[in-house]
Design brief:
The complex is a heterodimer of chains A (about 110) and B (about 110).
Chain A (H helix, E strand, L loop, with lengths): L3 E4 L2 E4 L5 E7 L5 E8 L3 E8 L6 E2 L6 E5 L5 E5 L8 E8 L9 E2 L3 E5 L1
Parallel strand pairs in A: 2-11
Antiparallel strand pairs in A: 1-3, 3-8, 4-5, 4-9, 5-6, 7-8, 9-10, 9-11
Chain B lengths: L3 E4 L2 E5 L5 E6 L7 E6 L6 E6 L5 E4 L2 E6 L4 E6 L8 E7 L9 E2 L3 E6 L1
Parallel strand pairs in B: 2-11
Antiparallel strand pairs in B: 1-3, 3-8, 4-5, 4-9, 6-7, 7-8, 9-10, 9-11
The chains are: A mainly beta (about 110), B mainly beta (about 110).
Chain lengths: ~110, ~110
């Protein structure tokens, strides 16, 4: 009964380094999302994938890229990390791309960029 | 620009009290308004949601009140318990944008024993 699994849970990077955050869901959901959470700013959508094979930009896409590898997996890549990307990153999924479908979240990746 | 504004930023109540968290939105196309609850070290989880065709929805001790004309909605927690201590987020979405959610800033609730 894993739901949405994110790896790693914690990561420290130096400015300019690259890394990929992994996300996998086992609920056979079509839609997947990447958010960042910063104090006092709520959750902001970075990218989302309405279905396998499609991705779209969210509110704050600059500095990130995504890959919907298959129906289960949706990865987020930082090509050249910047201190402004220090945040907690959450992956979520929902069964279909309709507004009333609840989103199920993973427990987050805490990323610090020095 | 923050399309969903949430207040207060933090809230402390005694056990049994009724904390109220408020949200205001700008986009009249929003047609679904969920509340998410987040415990420390965990991801948010859906708590309760409402559509604008009703003015109130109750699930257990949690109630959403919705005022379409004022473009405001609020979460009330009846008989609050220390276990309700968490961060609460309101959100909004519109059918034309699929399941994309716009979140409020969050409210950190502490319920003292």
């Amino acid at each position: 009964n894993a739901g949405v699994t994110q790896t790693p849970k914690f990561q420290v990077l130096k400015t300019g380094q690259s890394m990929t955050l992994q996300c996998a869901q086992d609920m056979n959901h079509n839609s997947m999302y990447w958010y960042r959470q910063d104090p006092g700013m709520g959750l902001r959508l970075i990218y989302y994938s309405a279905s396998e094979g499609t991705t779209d930009k969210g509110e704050v896409p600059n500095g990130y890229n995504v890959s919907r590898l298959n129906k289960r997996e949706f990865s987020l890549r930082l090509e050249s990390a910047a201190p402004s990307q220090t945040s907690v990153y959450f992956c979520a999924s929902s069964s279909r791309g309709f507004s009333n479908q609840p989103q199920h979240f993973g427990d987050g990746t805490r990323l610090s960029i020095l | 620009q923050q399309q969903v504004k949430q207040s207060p930023q933090s809230l402390i109540v005694q056990k049994g009290g009724i904390p109220i968290i408020n949200c205001a939105y700008e986009n009249t196309a929003f047609d679904y308004f969920p509340w998410y609850q987040q415990f420390p070290g965990k991801g948010p989880a859906l708590l309760i949601a409402i559509r604008p065709d009703v003015s109130e929805k109750k699930e257990g001790r949690f109630t959403i009140s919705f005022n379409k004309s004022a473009k405001q909605f609020s979460l009330h927690i009846m008989d609050s318990q220390p276990g309700d201590s968490a961060t609460y987020f309101c959100a909004a979405s519109k059918e034309t944008s699929g399941s994309r959610l716009t979140f409020g800033e969050g409210t950190q609730l502490t319920v003292n024993p």
